[in-house]
């Protein structure tokens, strides 16, 4: 039935469960490709800015929505020639319209690449090239994708990990203990499901108005809601599992509850948990963008993949690359993680390991 | 089984009370006045309005009054649309959301479960990768992206469907698809995961060994246990679907309940928030209860208890 | 091995699909054939994009622009909107009028005006309506607009209980007399506002009486006297109005029905228009504006509007108390770039609070973008190159457009002055509270004029005015505004207002950024729709003319 993983058939060296799993994982090409791609994306987001040195937050309004792979010719305007940073960066047309006294001659002078002084103001020609074009504010898309990736990957993983931990622990305990405890715990989940999330977010914003690290509030807000479905899924599985023969047998032989949960039940939960976790990551990343839009989370000019996609969607018809570029990185990363997740699930599948 | 259901219904009372209480105080502590406006509203006007809607009463009195009104199903007047009550809003918009939710759920189940089962039965083949990759696309493209794209392609270029509204049958197509495809993707992934778990378990192998056909082994023996995670997921998903999605309702201009949830919060409309939250809570509990019943029915061992 | 697929293969397929899909988007729109809109044109139905579900269609309670578009179809005041000129009075229920010293006004009502149930519209209805508007228990938010009536304020605040002392009187069934608190030469422009509309007294009484803030007569039995009457109202779906057979001028009403569609998502509205389901698109998404301009879109319109987008500065803040700092902030803003690169709608840059285009009024102007002077002023205030300048707290209400403008200005202040601001957005109700409490340093603000005269903007900046929101005040300014209101000579009034605005701009508690344009799209089949500074429409002058078959 299964083509992968291919295991050596010699039986004289009984390897441990974890070694087996690792070997199966390493043997799974798709999972390894996913891992490699994922490592590449992480490296790209964290180390990329060292090589690709555009400031993701620096706007050049004159460069708004520049097409990918095009070179733009601009003019730096300094009202005070000795000032280090320009007062405005503008296009050649706007220069001719607003600042030039003798447009044709001055445009020709700028075309030579030399700075030009007119009326006590300094004009320096400048060319810019943006691989993935720019956004509506003339900010470099690639740089924004890199910095956005750092936020999204961070939030995606930490918040998912939080949801995972709480959800799995809560669901297993509730499902395994059953009875009144289960009823109580699950009704608590029902309460949390029904509470209005938006008001919760607004309250968080008010309570932590002067709090420095608003990004932590995002974890709080996401962590508070995303574990609920995980808990329900795990509970459903546990209720099913605890009636299985091997659990009943362990119980009958007097194995402690904690040990039954961790040794016998938890490994069998992995499939659905891994699958749901890979579904949670994109949901969490997108939720982060909603929270940022509402004002909880990153500063207005900061980027995340979610907020880039959101902004890109609005420019879908006028500047489609602003949607396509971040969507590609987002989807590719999730695909990679998904293959890795599937590989992990296969590798840890205790039952099929007996094949 | 009947006692189980009755017990659960009894448990709903404290749960709803808790939800009411927490929501009530959350609204109390949130900033802003429901009566403020772009143009400054005179203090005596705000005072008069607060008096009429009972916001000047001591908090415990308000708490009890509003609770009593909800218990008698005599929903208190709302402040964001004077003249309307939460009952008007819910009774007009819930049927719309319910219908949209049912269409979306049908799409999600009819596409998601077969795709997931097929993928699991043919693990690591094209029949696995193709639907699962599509599902990943569905998950990676959020509804606020896929909705406008569908509207543009099918509504404006091809002119097969309409892009907005909720009157004719073609109005239903795009919103149901937008919402349904997203959930279909989730369900497909969850079904596949659950099925893989079961397909490698002993009793399915036994069934196979006994010569059951592949179809029988997969569909009859494995599906029952394999869709457990999907069933668990469906409870909250169902309640979420039938009470409407703000995003899809905005994109396709559908007069559903989801928009009111959000608008009531932005308008700080206490009565409307409380009524809709309690309504949603009731649905969540009902959905989760039905899911738990289905779970018991799917597991013969639990049934005998 | 052949069953294993390279993950990048799927990715590239997806990429191609997505790219093809999206790139094609920017190319063309469908030519449209016989759309729903064309059908509606032939049926005499105007499909009207109306931005969102109005909070109310009770003329006395509604405070929204989209709500008043509906009430002005359903109800008619003494004076109606003129089809072309904002400053001309168009006779509504009042046939003629005269005044003594601009203080005692007498209106002669037409005898053939009818409510939509057939009852005659009388002067008593107007007395009842003004009483309702001023009844404290009703809590009408715009009751203050009626304070120009003698004792109107006293009655509304509860100091006066006897309405007969308020300056509203029915001399007979068809003669209404208004006694004002002081001379008000431009009264006729003020009473076009829906707060001055009449309501049908027996209906109001049947639905809970004069002081009931949440009566549902608007929904169950809307009785109006306008050219249209309410046909159906489905929340968040549509409000449909049809011709009112009892309207006194019913012969002139051309369009049979108007369907007001509350589409709050502006991208959706754009798509709905493009799919041929609207005659009128209320808002055009800013990224689509350059495309429509470039394509010479036959529907696109951009017209001046009496509205200004500006920032409020909190002058009670120790840093912003220094006028030089406020001026430096204004001089460091490149308004041209904001309008051209962010708003993209060809708006006029704002160097004054009052927009251009008010007849006889040329507002004083601030200085344009001048980085050198801005830096110099900031240095004089003690912050050379922005050193030691604290991070300013900037608040705006949650909206994509406000965020875009704020981000651009954040960068300009950093580039030119070397100062930082932290952007903070808040949901609407929180934002209003924060702004009213002066719990900010810089706040987003905007104002749409009620009528075409400078004081619709300038009166806000009187000391302690509810809409001042800056903490600024100047006795000379207050005096000028107060005097101007009662000044009968129009030229003199404008002169006084000009001096007031000069004081305001010199002190600079506000930074005007740009004057809004009315940017919308409309089907050329809609006739009689003229550019108007206030964007108020009198529907009876609008008609639909189907395309002739030869043109199709």
Count of separate structural domains of chain C: 3
Rounded to an integer in angstroms, the radius of gyration calculated over CA atoms of chain B is: 24 Å
Helix content, binned percent of chain C: 25-40%
**C-alpha end-to-end distance of chain C:** 60 Å
What percent strand of chain C? Answer: 15-25%
Helix/sheet category of chain B: mainly alpha
CATH class of the largest domain in chain C: Alpha Beta
Assign a percent range to the helix content of chain B: over 70%
**Roughly how many Å apart are the termini of chain B?**
9 Å
What is the ordering of alpha helices and beta strands of chain B? HHHHHHHHHHHHHH
Assign the CATH topology of the largest domain in chain C: Dipeptide-binding Protein, domain 3
Unreliable stretches of chain B (pLDDT < 50, length at least 5) are none
Topology:
The complex is a heterotrimer of chains A (355), B (305) and C (552).
Chain A: H1 17-27, H2 29-51, E1 70-78, E2 88-91, H3 92-99, H4 103-111, E3 116-118, E4 121-130, H5 141-177, H6 179-194, H7 197-207, H8 214-241, H9 245-252, H10 257-294, H11 305-314, H12 321-348
Antiparallel strand pairs in A: 1-2, 1-4, 3-4
Chain B: H1 2-29, H2 43-52, H3 59-71, H4 86-121, H5 126-140, H6 143-157, H7 169-199, H8 202-209, H9 214-226, H10 228-242, H11 246-251, H12 257-266, H13 270-298, H14 300-303
Helix pairs in contact in B: 1-13, 4-5, 4-7, 4-10, 5-7, 6-7, 7-9, 7-10, 8-9, 10-13, 12-13
Chain C: H1 7-25, H2 36-43, E1 45-49, H3 65-74, E2 79-80, E3 90-91, E4 94-100, E5 104-109, H4 123-134, H5 152-156, E6 168-172, E7 175-179, H6 187-190, H7 201-206, H8 217-220, E8 228-234, E9 238-243, E10 257-261, H9 266-274, E11 280-281, H10 289-294, E12 300-313, H11 323-331, H12 335-343, E13 348-349, H13 371-380, E14 392-397, H14 400-417, E15 421-426, H15 428-436, E16 442-448, H16 455-458, H17 475-486, H18 490-507, E17 510-522, E18 526-527, E19 543-544
Helix pairs in contact in C: 11-13, 17-18
